[in-house]
Amino acid sequence: MERQVVDKAREAFQSGKSRSLPYRKQQLRALHRLITEHQADIAQALKQDINKSVHDTTLFELIGLENDIKLAESNLADWAAPWPARKNLGSANDDVYIKPEPLGVVLIIGAWNYPWALTLQPLVGAIAAGNAAVVKPSELSEHSARLLKELLPQYLDEEMYPVVTGGVPETQELLKQRFDHIFYTGNSTVGKLVLEAAAPHITPVTLELGGKSPCYIDRNCDIAVACRRITWGKFANCGQTCIAPDYILCEASIQDRIIKEIGNTLREFYTEDAKNSPDYGRIINTRHFDRVMALKEGCTVAIGGESDGSQCYIAPTVLRDVLPHFKIMQEEIFGPLLPITTVDNLSEAIHFINKREKPLALYVFSSDKKVIKRMLTETTSGGVTVNDVMMHYTLNSLPFGGVGNSGMGRYHGKHTFDQLSHHRACLIKSFAMEGLNDARYPPLTAARVRRAKIVLQSRFCRCSGMCVWAIISTIVSIALLIALLVVLL
After folding, report:
1. Cα 60–66–69 angle (5° rounding)?
2. What is the pLDDT of residues 262-272, one digit of tens each?
């Protein structure tokens, strides 16, 4: 079944229809219509999957997706156009350029925590770049997966963009097929399996993973504002966000103040009873509920701690004085638990971060430019936001992606187009100026090698074709060549 789907998508791609920019724009517009015409259906599916409110659906799933679609449609001609590359003396009379080309058939494996945005944003780039794409939504967000399979063929070319649903067996069977790129969003454990599956075909991959994104709060900052922003980012979607602040690092002297301000903000956001708040979500299933609850072992609860397994509900919870060896500090939390670990100073915080895997995101709160500079200079992460959380994700002008254990590759906006394109190097040589080539032909001599070095190391003109500058450069090149011959012979 999966092989037939992939073969059909490859046949559709090889027909050449997706090389047409009007075709790509038509598909992008159709995808936009799907979102706008079915917002209520999408919101209902997410409510059933993860208790996401209609407003959260718009804010966290659809706005960014619509922005990417509009950006791709309006800029597609520029993105897909070849651009000139710099020439040297030997190519002064030639066309030298880089041409974006489709890769072929892309496999997109979506995630359950944001099943629309994290599945369809890569698809936007795949369509814009002229690829076919097999879409595999996560089976854990079953209502969204079912709706996506129902709706996508009604709007997009079904042969070019088929949807495959199912669980682990279906995903494993898909990964046995040959693709031209695999785009996976999820955890590092499955990411390694995706890499293994891609290796036999030498298939390039984009891995959007996660990890423990640290949040350092300096004593020299507006702690009330910092905690308000951190509380929003941590407990949105019930903590099930790959770039949510995973843990707080701070000096012991401000830990109590941080706990107090987070408590105040939680009451403001979700009232005294988060369980009945329309803006507070649920854990995706009982397996993840049990996993998150087990992470509390040995921790001191400062705020929250309540739970209800029958509803997969875990209250927004803050844990104080968490030590580095605790279980909760060994893996990504992906739930509404916020541990606070104290450090003596900035240097210790930097050392703490650098001893661990490179995170997907890093957050720094400080009013001291020296603190900010040190954090940016002495640590590394997929992305960073200073004095806020998660907002770097919302700018499609910025590349989004991980580094090391938190992933590879990047996307959003033009970055998705580039990630899912092949940048083909093109040199169209002229038959003129053959005399310049003598320096590379046998029999080689020291003088010829010196001339070849001058020709190959020269740099000028990014123009493609015989523009005015290319003509001038050609005349200058001939003059230089004559002068060189006089000197070297």
Report:
1. 135
2. 999 999 999 99
